[in-house]
Sequence to fold (226 residues):
Amino acid sequence: MRAIDVMTNAVITVHEDATVSEVAKLLAINGISAVPVVDNDSRVIGMVSEGDLLHRAETGTERRRPWWLEMVSSTNELAGEYIRSHSGNIKDVMTRDVLSVTEDTPVADIAVLLETNRIKRVPVLRDGKLVGIVSRANLVRALAMTISEAAGGAEADDRSIRDKLLAELKGQNWAEVSPANVTVKDGVVHLWSSYLSERERRALVVAAESIPGVRRVEDHMRPVRA
Fold:
């Protein structure tokens, strides 16, 4: 599954000449938490989120540092904070270092990007121009859709289930399971291997439960004796 499969196509944007007041109203009226900023060529040059508007002079929430911290802060840094909290131009407030993906970016890579950078959404670009946006909510909806489709599809036969499970376990460094210790009958997976830890045992069960067509997992595993 790729970005194009889960992204929102109708993206609300603001022009680089927009004011802070205009953007704040746009976010409030549409119930969104961020919006891309585009230039005259529809290229994304920034993002404005609720976090960027959190510390503002108008609401008395501008960032205030203790005097000793101001003493060790550079004048460049302090001037930058003043601009972000007082300027009415969105170009002075927006986040300029925008992470982006393409339509072909796998959703797994997008999930890692959102998590590692602690962001909630990422624009999707084609030749530098905005074509969509993928948010955490989009990924959750994709998960729900995938689970529903798997549950409603035809049950895989026992041999297919076993082959898929063994292939999954073969790709995991923590899983040392002999094929002889995995059997499948009428969609029920039977696990007979030994395990070193409770987490390893649970991971084996989860791997089996995740295979499409599995009706139930029977755990016959035993812990390794020291």
The domain at 158-223 is CATH 3.30.1340.30 (Histidine-containing Protein; Chain: A;).
